[in-house]
Amino acid sequence: MINSAALLGVAAVALGMVLTPGPNMMYIVSRSITQGRRAGMVSLSGVAIGFVVYLTAANLGLSVIFIHVPEAYVTVKLAGAAYLAWLALRTLLPGGTSVFAPGELPADSTRRLFTMGLLTNLLNPKAAILYLSLIPQFVRPSAGHVLAQGFVLGGVQIMVSLTVNLLIIGAAGTIAVFLGRRPTWLRLQRWAMGTVLGALAVHLATDRVRPA
User: Fold this and answer.
1) Are 33 and 100 in contact (CB under 8 A)?
2) 68, 70, 121, 168: which is deepest, by most CB within 10 A?
3) Which is more confident, 109 or 77?
């Protein structure tokens, strides 16, 4: 049986992760503002499935592909960096908008919202490395079925992430109204967000760390 220390440990790490601004949070917030809370939740469901994919891969040992075939890791990493750079350019170039800027309802379908949420998560190979390096630290063979423990502990991380992001989706509208009444703050937020996205893209592209 998994002890409470393991559950709390994974929950604490998961909370720190989800509270750190990243592409998942930025995409979910932008969809919540431009299309409403339902769109944010659909996008979040795509992100959640991305976590499930990586969790399943890690627990079944498929993530070792990144270890034994470094080229696969580099390819996914560069694809993720390119995606983040594209998001940064969309935010910073003339005509770009803040994720908190209210706008007309775009024609994005439910399928597209889900797919973009999924891709936003899958284009970060470090999610797989996270499961590969984090979960085993809390798994104890003496506590029972190792594979079951891996899925339960990974499920804790996913639940923490979903809970926090649901709260963010609920608050996004209020934040948008606050910033909408302060155009200067809205512009500063757009530039800050674009800069963060660009920095993430550069860091991901130049990161020399390899899975081990």
Assistant:
1) yes
2) 121
3) 109
